[in-house]
Amino acid sequence: MSLSADEFEKGAAGTNEIENLLKQHPGVAYSLHEIEEALIGPGMNRTKHLDVFIANLTLIAPLLFEEKKIEYRVINGIPYFRWRG
Asked: Could you state, in order of their start, the residue ranges of all structural domains in the chain?
């Protein structure tokens, strides 16, 4: 369901949970499905929480590509992410 501009402005700015997870565990690299499970949990409302996960994933783009605070490697065909800081 879409929102009006007024409804959108009333919302709270969320934190980037992916960034927080990676910062809290700088010595650990996670695949996307591991990040999703860590943030959302195994018993999830897939529709609602997938939106949250994708939004968080989008928000880390500057940290990954511009600021280079998140490292990215592909290991055995699986992408992994790790906080570099």
From this structure: 13-83
Fold exhibited by the domain 13-83: Arc Repressor Mutant, subunit A (1.10.10)
Q: At CB < 8 A and 24+ separation, what contacts does 27-30 make? A: 28/82, 29/71, 29/73, 29/80, 29/81, 29/82, 30/80, 30/81, 30/82
Chain segment 17-53, per-residue pLDDT in tens: 889 999 999 999 998 888 888 887 777 666 667 777 7
Q: How confident is the model at residue 5 (pLDDT cuts 50, 70, 90)?
A: confident
Does the reported pTM lie above 0.90? Answer: no
Q: What is the 3-state secondary structure (H, E, C) of the chain?
A: CCCCHHHHHHCCCCCCHHHHHHHHCCCCCEEHHHHHHHHHCCCCCHHHHHHHHHHHHHHCHHHHHHCCCEEEEEECCEEEEEECC
